[in-house]
Structures are given as C-alpha cells and as structure tokens.
Design a protein that fits this description.
Elements: E1 6-10, H1 14-25, E2 34-39, H2 48-59, E3 66-71, H3 78-93, E4 95-100, E5 103-105, H4 109-119, E6 126-130, E7 144-147, E8 155-158, H5 159-162, H6 177-183, H7 191-200, H8 207-216, E9 220-224, E10 229-231, H9 267-299
Parallel strand pairs: 1-2, 1-4, 2-3, 6-9
Antiparallel strand pairs: 4-8, 5-10, 6-8, 7-9
Length: 301
C-alpha cells in the first residue's frame, strides 16, 4: 500500500510541535510516509522567536520517507494555511492526512488512517476519516462508525471529496431550522453558532465550513470507537482553544478493523454524542458560574 502523505501545520509552539512529530514517528508507517510541513509567518514581533525555534526544529527532522517544508513569508492565519496546504498536497497525491501542531497520535494512527483511506476511496458518500473521537460512552459500539460530523484533530480525506470545498458564508443559506437542529446534534452543541461568529468576523475558522459542506451534501465521516488522537492544545496555547479538559481521551492501543459496517450514519453514536455534548454544556455552565463568583469575590474584597 502506498502511504498517504501527512500535511503538518505549525506555527509558534515548539514544545507542542516536538511532541506531535515524535508521536508520529512512533508509528511504524512513518518511514514510508511523505511529510509536508507548512510553517506560518509570525503575525507580530512577539511571535518571531517562537516561530524561529519551530523552524529550526523542523529543518532538522528525519525519519519520514521524504520531508518538504513550506515557510510562509507573510502571515496566512490558520484557516487560510490549512485550506491552501490541503489543496496543494491532496491534489497532488489524491488523498492526505492532516495534522496541526498540538496533536499526539497513537502509534496505530497511521495504519488506521491508511486502511480507511484505501478501503473507502471509491465510496463517494464518505468524505472524511477522523483520528480523534470525543470521549463518549463507547461500550457496545462497533470498532468504527459513521457520522455526518467531521473532526479536525488528525483527519484524512480524498481529493474527490475536498476539491469542491469552499469557505463561503453562502453555505448558511442552505440551512433551514430542522437542518440547524440536526447540525447542532439536537441543539446540544453550538456548531451553528460558529458559522454565525465567522459571519460576524469574530472568528476566522475553516473547519465549520467543511462540516457544513459535508453535512449538506449528505456525506459521512468515519470514526474509530476509541480515539487515536489526543489534543494537547487545550492548555490555553491554541489559536481558538482555551484551557479545557472536556476533550481528554485515553488513546487506543490497537488500530480498529476497517469495514464490515453499514455505510450509513450511526443513530446510536449520534445519540451518545448528544448525551456527551449535553454533559459538557453543564460543565461549561458550572465553570462560568464559578468564574463569575471568583470575580465577584475579588471585586468585593
């Protein structure tokens, strides 16, 4: 099997970047995998030294079959960087595995991703393979399942699925009330709100537009029952991530068997995601109340 290339997007987090790369190198398939690293330019003087440190590290990388590095000369921002980089790699190879600089992979991640990308290559209704799985209740689920929700923490796709993707606010016009309800997992998670924040210019993200395209096209995303990715960026260092432990997982120690399931959305997995999202929403509310109480206590002396 020809290994899918990995596109890795880095910026100004040298410690996270090193952990991400070292975890990928622990995959036996790494030595047969092409790595394409995209390093964004500093957006301000305060980021220059950290970006330089990351670039010094990636320039001496070894252990992959081939390594290509793109160092931007102007700041692209995460959304533009990922869309451009995925376009470049995926159009050349026909498929791609995408990583950001805060993801620690299981040593079985590359096997799973390559197995899935090969198995579902000609399934036009499958658009995305996720390496990360939310910490839902997994007992009784098959080794893999489908949702219409993609996840952007270690993921793969094919050029046939990605080539029509556009980051455009016009996608919002295609949603009615029922679609928004389902898009938000029975209104348990604020995915639609992310589109609204992009429209308002409050945030500039790419993933939510990819989700909207996949969702509206009726396409599916494959998930492993147990996560093969841990996001270490919820320590306050991420571009759009604060400090949060709600998404922590224990990594799978074996690659899930690919295939053998109906190519339809799993209603049971959908229900378990709804329960999970509701549980962390309660936690978010409790944290917000606690933060307000601490602020009030300080204000009153």
């Amino acid at each position: 099997m020809n290994m899918a290339p990995v596109a890795l997007f880095v910026y100004n987090r040298p410690v996270h970047t090193r952990r991400t790369v070292e975890a990928l190198l622990n995959n036996p398939e790494a030595s047969k995998t092409d790595l394409h690293v995209f390093s964004d330019h500093p957006k301000d003087p305060q980021s220059e030294e950290a970006v330089s440190e990351v670039r010094r590290y990636i320039r001496q990388l070894q252990g992959f079959r081939n390594i290509e590095i793109t160092e931007q000369h102007t700041n692209q921002g995460l959304a533009r960087s990922i869309i451009s980089g995925v376009n470049s790699v995926c159009s050349s190879y026909g498929r791609v595995i995408v990583f950001e600089d805060d993801l620690v992979a299981s040593p079985r991640l590359l096997k799973f991703m390559n197995d899935a990308l090969a198995f579902y290559e000609n399934y036009d209704n499958v658009a995305h393979v996720s390496g990360y799985t939310y910490p839902i209740e997994a007992s009784g689920l098959p080794e893999t399942y489908f949702l219409r929700l993609p996840m952007c923490w270690g993921w793969g796709t094919w050029w046939r699925a990605w080539q029509g993707f556009e980051k455009t606010l016009q996608v919002m016009e295609r949603f009615d009330h029922q679609a928004r309800h389902r898009f938000d997992f029975d209104s348990s998670y604020g995915y639609w709100r992310q589109l609204e924040l992009n429209r308002a210019g409050t945030i500039d993200t790419w993933f939510i537009f990819w989700y909207a395209n996949v969702f509206l096209n009726g396409q599916l995303c494959l998930f492993p029952k147990t996560s093969l990715i841990d996001n270490i960026g919820h320590d306050g260092t991420g571009v759009h991530c604060g400090s949060n432990a709600d998404y922590g997982v224990t990594l799978a120690n074996a690659a899930p068997q690919v295939g053998g399931i109906p190519v339809v959305e799993s209603e049971e997995a959908y229900r378990r995601h709804v329960r999970y999202f509701k549980s962390i929403r309660k936690g978010l509310g409790a944290r917000a109340i606690g933060k307000a109480a601490r602020f009030l206590k300080r204000a009153l002396g």
